[in-house]
Amino acid sequence: MAAKTKTHHEKEKAPWITCRSQIKVLDCTIRDGGLINDHKFDDALVKAVYQTCVEAGVDYMELGYKASKKQFAVGEYGDWKFCDEDALRRIVGDNPTPLKLSVMADAGKCDWREDIIPKDESVLSLIRCAFYVNQIPEAVEMIKHCHEMGYEVSANLMAISRVQDEELEEALEELAQTPTSVIVVVDSNGALYTEQIKRLVKKFRKYTDATGKEVGIHAHNNLQLAFANTIEAIIHGANRLDATMYGLGRGAGNCPMELLIGFLRNPKFHVRPIYKILQDHMLALREELEWGPLVPYMIGGQLNQHPRAAMACRESPDKDRFVAFYDKSVTEE
Q1: Which residues, 6+ apart, have CB-to-CB distance to 13 below 8 Å?
Q2: CB of 215 within 8 A of CB of 187?
Q3: Distance, CA of 28 to CA of 303 (rounded, Å)
Q4: Which of 175, 71, 50, 182 is CA-nearest to residue 123?
Q5: Among candidates 292, 277, 226, 221, which has minimal Cα distance to 50?
């Protein structure tokens, strides 16, 4: 049968000028950015990000981690490593806004049975359970616990670029049976290209669509593709999007919120407040902290390596010896 010829009207359609109302945006500026400075942000910046999220119409703000105080010395980190309730309320009070608040709980690095309190005792709405593929059994238990405590739950499968297909299928099958509302494609190494994002989102949707869950995307910017990869994920049905103010985040940083909000057409989002925080806070922060797609992070992304080596390089006297870093990285591959 011959293919149906498109009409002139069909050819002229421009879906990019419309919006998809199901899309929700999560700001992880303070959480992911805290990986640069041991979570030692002052209250003024955290409050500024909070207020910006409210004014910009962002759906969620992630303030930090629920890290184990048995594993991490309290005095060596800022409040946003642990996100105790009093610290959260110091910033948001009772959060009398539509903005929902989130923290991340890392499998193997948090005491989730003790530290994640019932939802009716907290200002938090969402717990994002983060884990590697070999931690699926603990992740399933974490997700169930957080759901039983009354929270919305997200399952963040990290370092997806290094997961084998058969492992991924098994992991998604397990996660699809949990009460998580979102399963997130997490490009921890910033190594993925748009073709891979398309394939992964479609694979995730085989499991999420059948169980009423959403697909999310968390992109790192090693290859300067975080924004492009987020758009690609949107095109193929991801409705939960991560971004940060000025792209602040570990190593190469994340999808810049100013680009994402400027791209989305939903009138509930407003980009002007984001430009204000860039002007009033993020430019000054750039003088104190280094992040973005610098050459060592690019090399790590191309080699699909964790950014810890590139971060160590940038803190050393040899931070700009790119050839030496490349040669060492290739040898260790």
Answers
A1: none
A2: no
A3: 25
A4: 50
A5: 277
What is the spatial distance between Cα 217 and Cα 233, in angstroms, rounded to a whole number?
7
Integer Cα distance of 106 and 32 in angstroms:
13
Domain boundaries, the chain: 17-288, 295-332
The predicted model scores a pTM of 0.94
Q: In angstroms, what CA-CA distances link 22 with 167, 190, 216, 294? A: 29, 26, 12, 34
What is the CATH architecture of 17-288?
A: Alpha-Beta Barrel (3.20)
Tell me the average confidence (pLDDT) per consecutive run of 10 residues in the chain, 333 residues long: 48 70 97 98 98 98 98 97 98 98 98 97 98 98 98 98 97 98 98 98 97 98 98 97 98 98 95 98 97 96 94 94 95 80
Cβ–Cβ under 8 Å, residues 207 and 168? no
Tokens coding 326: 């490349």
Backbone φ and ψ of 86, nearest 5°? -65, -35
